TrEMBL record:
It comes from the Bacteria. This is Extracellular solute-binding protein. Belongs to the bacterial solute-binding protein 1 family. Gene3D superfamilies: Periplasmic binding protein-like II. Keywords: Signal, Transport.
Length: 466
């Protein structure tokens, strides 16, 4: 295999993903240089009793320190919140260093390859896999002797543990922040009896939230004013159609098909992908004309303004929906993306190979993803990755989106980022450029899938990925 240093590659793509969390009050960070004893916290009315990792944290790491790197924002805030409790239980100090989106990957990759100051990193899944391929991460099975006896690996959502935590069949990271695209829809319109009667009269069918791609196209067409003057809303469908985002539209449609196989082969030029792209092109007729210019903020704003019936988006949309200025607050329902094959995003946390306190770093990443301690992160938009927390009634009731989020995470089959070590960014660029060419009428579907296949194959071949 040709060793390609991460410093010599184009930075991995950034996927803006966020979640939505429950309640709870954040305590102020302890300012003392010594760990302080904190009262047992309560989240969602649940007392978090097991914050000593089943007795494996007994202050034995006093005098030791680790540094954890991540992106500035909610990821940093969530880690700092958990660090207070970890410090109290372990006796150690945890420094969280963060970098703004846009240069966080460069800074962290530079440290992993040269400076070696970070003991653990919290980053998008595709980055973590590249770090593992480069030998920058520890295998987590090496820490079984010091692991929490109640760690319960089977409690992680299976699809998430496999995609987020493992590389080349070995466990290098714990899942930390799950993300998947979901269908958000105007439940007030779907449940309106007059609207339902009109739909039935015109189509001969009962109005229902679509579960198939064909149904989504039918419903989107009916509720687009340009196609139906009687529609109570402007557009039947909206999503992020801009460069860096548009590939998700057809990837959500692919079913069992994937873009890249598990053995790093391009698998995009086939009937399954072509059919998925046909659906995307149909949906274009029922979306805003400026669709290919809509990114996260622009697309969300249009949906929150009440312009569209349905939107496929990451869970963080809920924050805009629930904002006091939102015109659709309390009017939105949630469903798995039609076709039941939503793309996944997500973040994982891992121990660096050069850490001088790797055991302590392991205990920290184990702690922040444990059953009780992960509830400390939820109020900071880091949703649970453990099945048992979705099964806790108090947690599930805190967020009406959670039942569908769990279902979507379970059904997700592939990452939105092309998951090939070192060259994820380059492959994503190919997928986006060709998708944009199709959306803007520069080429047809056959040319699009052929171009993708050829360019992906060449990029992977040049990288000599085994």
């Amino acid at each position: 295999m040709k060793k390609i240093g991460l410093l010599c590659t184009v930075l991995l793509s950034l996927v803006v993903i966020s979640g939505c969390g429950g309640g709870g009050e954040t305590k102020e960070s302890a300012k003392s240089s010594e760990p302080v004893e904190l009262k047992t916290p309560e989240k969602f009315g649940i007392k978090l009793e097991n914050l000593d990792a089943s007795g494996t944290l007994e202050g034995q790491y006093k005098g030791k320190k680790i540094t954890v790197a991540t992106r500035t924002g909610d990821h940093e805030t969530a880690l700092k919140e958990a660090a207070k409790y970890f410090e109290a239980a372990s006796g150690a100090k945890v420094e969280v260093q963060s970098f703004p989106a846009g240069n966080d990957e460069e800074k962290i990759q530079l440290d992993l390859s040269t400076s070696h100051t970070f003991d653990a990193v919290l980053m998008p899944v595709a980055n973590i896999h590249s770090y593992a391929a480069s030998g920058y991460l520890k295998k987590l099975d090496d820490y079984k002797k010091v692991a929490d006896p109640e760690l319960d690996m089977d409690d992680f959502i299976p699809s998430i543990l496999d995609l987020y935590g493992k590389y080349d069949g070995k466990l290098y990271a714990f899942p930390y922040k799950p993300d998947t695209q979901m269908l958000f829809y105007r439940k007030d319109i779907f449940e309106d009896e007059k609207v339902k009667a009109a739909y039935k009269e015109k189509t001969g069918k009962d109005l229902a939230v679509p579960t198939t791609n064909e149904e989504m196209v039918e419903v989107a067409k009916y509720f687009t004013k340009a196609k139906n003057a009687d529609s109570p809303i402007d557009y039947g469908y909206i999503s992020m159609g801009s460069t860096t985002n548009s590939r998700a539209i057809w990837m959500n449609r692919e079913g069992e098909q994937t873009v890249i196989s598990k053995d790093n082969q391009a698998t995009v030029d086939n009937d399954g992908t072509k059919k998925a792209m046909e659906t995307m092109m149909e949906l274009k007729n029922y979306a805003p004309k400026e669709w290919t210019q809509l990114g996260w903020d622009e697309a969300n704003a249009m949906f929150v303004e009440g312009k569209a019936l349905m939107m496929e988006q990451w869970p963080g949309l809920i924050n805009s929906i629930n904002d006091d200025k939102s015109k659709i607050k309390d009017k939105v329902g949630f469903a798995v993306t039609p076709g039941s094959s939503p793309v996944l995003g997500g973040w994982s946390i891992a121990v660096t190979n050069h850490s001088e306190e790797d055991e302590l770093a392991y205990k920290f990443i184990e702690f922040v993803t444990s059953k009780d301690a992960e509830l400390l992160k939820v109020e900071h938009t880091m949703d649970p990755v453990r099945q048992s927390n979705y099964e806790r009634g108090e947690v599930m009731e805190s967020n009406p989106m959670y039942p569908v989020l769990l279902d979507s995470l379970t059904k997700g089959k592939q990452l939105v980022d092309a998951d090939v070590p070192y060259i994820s960014a380059q492959l994503n660029d190919i997928l986006e450029d060709e998708t944009q060419n199709l959306l803007n009428g520069k080429q047809d579907i056959d040319k699009t899938t052929a171009n993708m296949q050829k360019k992906l194959k060449k990029e992977i071949s040049n990288a000599e990925i085994e």
